[in-house]
């Protein structure tokens, strides 16, 4: 992709039903990099992602896409640049896998544009890369949780946006498929320059795959930067309330968090 779009949250405050979840934070997503947001449950990770995706309006501050407030940008224009895979999406009853994935092409359709060979190619590539091509004619509601998750990822990939936001994309997947998805996203980032932002629960997966890590606690950013620079025993204790040792991951050299229970004493 030749255009590098920018995305940032500037002094945003976000809440639901009169309760403030994010009391005011600013983050700038590095263009063309793989950013992962981590933190304990209910710390505001998904809330921040939804605000950046224009799914939830901040009570103050602004999310800026290419320097323009995303809430003031037309929906189709946003969708042609920024894709989102939310938590627990719901498919229309009876829709087939291929039809659901094809919906990822809607932002490119315009009023008079017909379905093209480019659309076919985008859908086919998305089905193939997520290993769901053989499920193309199956109804989505007949699939397992892991299969459905891969289909939703395929729809997001078919959109072919410059920025892709994913809220817990490895939910329902076993470890092998978790790594398949994260490898696929890494390929998208490296080969097409797609800017990725993902919320992940698994800290070691985040450290292994992220170029840029954002650690959150109670609606605030505690630290951000390359995992090798910010992931320390002190940070893990502060953010997750967990004692640990940090050692190099033998496969990637990235920080590997080894949890310690009350009866464990770090070696050495």
From TrEMBL:
Q: Which GO terms describe its molecular function?
A: ATP binding; ATP hydrolysis activity
- UniProt record, GO biological process: iron ion transport
Instruction: State the compartments where it is located.
Output: Cell membrane
What PANTHER family does its record include?
A: FE(3+) DICITRATE TRANSPORT ATP-BINDING PROTEIN FECE-RELATED, IRON(3+)-HYDROXAMATE IMPORT ATP-BINDING PROTEIN FHUC
Name the chain's protein.
Cobalamin/Fe3+-siderophore ABC transporter ATP-binding protein
UniProt membrane topology term: Peripheral membrane protein
Q: Where is the ABC transporter domain?
A: 7-243
Its GO CC terms? Answer: plasma membrane
Alphabetized InterPro entries for the sequence: AAA+_ATPase, ABC_transporter-like_ATP-bd, ABC_transporter-like_CS, P-loop_NTPase, Siderophore_ABC-ATPase
Which keywords accompany this UniProt record?
ATP-binding, Cell membrane, Ion transport, Iron, Iron transport, Membrane, Nucleotide-binding, Transport
Q: Its principal location? A: membrane
Q: Which PROSITE patterns match?
A: ABC_TRANSPORTER_1, ABC_TRANSPORTER_2
